[in-house]
């Protein structure tokens, strides 16, 4: 990263005896920016307020001269109105990015210098504190590039740019909406609840997603595990993971139809007025791919199947 240190800050560093402090800013995908400093007082640097409490204690960056991933850890404590356990459980740090900076706490108007940035990794919770893994930008170079061939579709999510199916439509022939607004009528467990306003088959939402519209979890998205029809217009839904805060009767959510990633589902379930024959043209799997079972046929020809 180029050393674009503000002139006033660079002059301060050149003095030898400095009054530097560390800053860390986390930008989540949902919600407001979180910014902290290890200084004893709040600081405003480059128009961003950095809170001294609860603050964060950040370890040194571990990196090398080769292509090792530069990682570090940040530790902090839960505090109402800043960071709560519910925020972490709801996935506030999922896909969040961070910046590590330093500034002159005696003259914060000099600006700050960013010396590490990247993405939030694993988050661990213990008692009233949490530990966040900070992964540097070189982390992206260690991730696989390309696709793995499979009989099943490998789109990240139904309706995305590769799937191309319009979930704001209804199923051809049945008129069942692919996206439905549901209301919680009863809560069974932390991640299982009953809803009204449902229409569709028994497994319509299996493997789909819901986004909470109202309630304690408003704005957050969860993956649906399975649904069980319990009556006309009523359904029991179970989520893969427990949401960050309690689900309550009256909460509303927007749920999208799920897909098991097989070609027959793409063709038969995901049909609308624009694609009455299904979405198979956009199927991203290889249904005719030979299986892993290799056998020798009676005529001596090697064949693959499975």
> What is the makeup of the main sheet?
7 strands, antiparallel
CATH topology of the domain at 7-142: Pnp Oxidase, Chain A
Regions with little confidence, pLDDT below 50 for 5+ residues: none
Q: Pairing-aware structural class of the strands and helices? A: mainly beta
Please state the second-level CATH architecture of the domain at 7-142: Roll
Number of helices: 3
Beta-strand percentage?
Answer: 35-45%
Radius of gyration: 25 Å
Q: What is the helix fraction of residues, given as a range?
A: under 10%
CATH class of the domain at 7-142: Mainly Beta
Terminal Cα span: 51 Å
- Indicate the mean pLDDT: 81
Number of DSSP strand runs: 17
- Helices and strands, in order, run as HEEEEEEHEEEEEEEEEHEE
Global geometry: elongated
Write out the strand line-up for the largest beta sheet, numbering strands in chain order: 2-1-7-8-9-6-5
């Amino acid at each position: 990263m180029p050393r674009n240190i503000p002139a006033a800050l660079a002059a301060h560093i050149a003095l030898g005896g400095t009054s530097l402090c560390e800053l860390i800013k986390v930008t989540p995908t949902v919600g407001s920016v979180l910014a902290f400093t290890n200084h004893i007082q709040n600081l405003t640097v480059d128009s961003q307020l950095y809170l001294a409490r609860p603050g964060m204690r950040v370890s040194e960056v571990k990196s090398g001269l080769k292509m090792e991933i530069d990682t570090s850890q940040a530790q902090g404590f839960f505090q109402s109105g800043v960071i709560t356990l519910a925020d972490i459980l709801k996935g506030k740090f999922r896909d969040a990015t961070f910046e590590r900076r330093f500034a002159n706490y005696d003259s914060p108007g000099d600006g700050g210098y960013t010396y590490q940035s990247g993405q939030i990794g694993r988050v661990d919770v213990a008692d009233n504190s949490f530990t966040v893994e900070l992964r540097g930008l070189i982390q992206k170079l260690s991730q696989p590039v390309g696709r793995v061939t499979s009989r099943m579709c490998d789109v990240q999510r139904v309706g995305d740019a590769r799937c191309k199916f319009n979930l704001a439509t209804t199923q051809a022939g049945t008129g069942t909406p692919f996206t439905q607004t549901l209301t919680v009528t009863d809560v069974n467990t932390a991640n299982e609840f009953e809803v009204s306003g449902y229409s569709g088959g028994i497994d319509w939402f299996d493997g789909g997603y819901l986004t909470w519209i109202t309630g304690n979890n408003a704005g957050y998205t969860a993956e649906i595990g399975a649904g069980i029809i319990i009556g006309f217009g009523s359904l029991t839904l179970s989520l893969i993971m427990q949401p960050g805060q309690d689900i309550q009767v009256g909460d509303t959510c927007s749920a999208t139809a799920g897909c098991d990633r097989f070609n027959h589902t793409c063709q038969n379930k995901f049909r609308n007025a624009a694609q009455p024959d299904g979405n198979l043209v956009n199927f991203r799997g290889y249904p005719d791919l030979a299986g892993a079972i290799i056998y020798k046929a009676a005529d001596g020809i090697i064949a693959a199947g499975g």
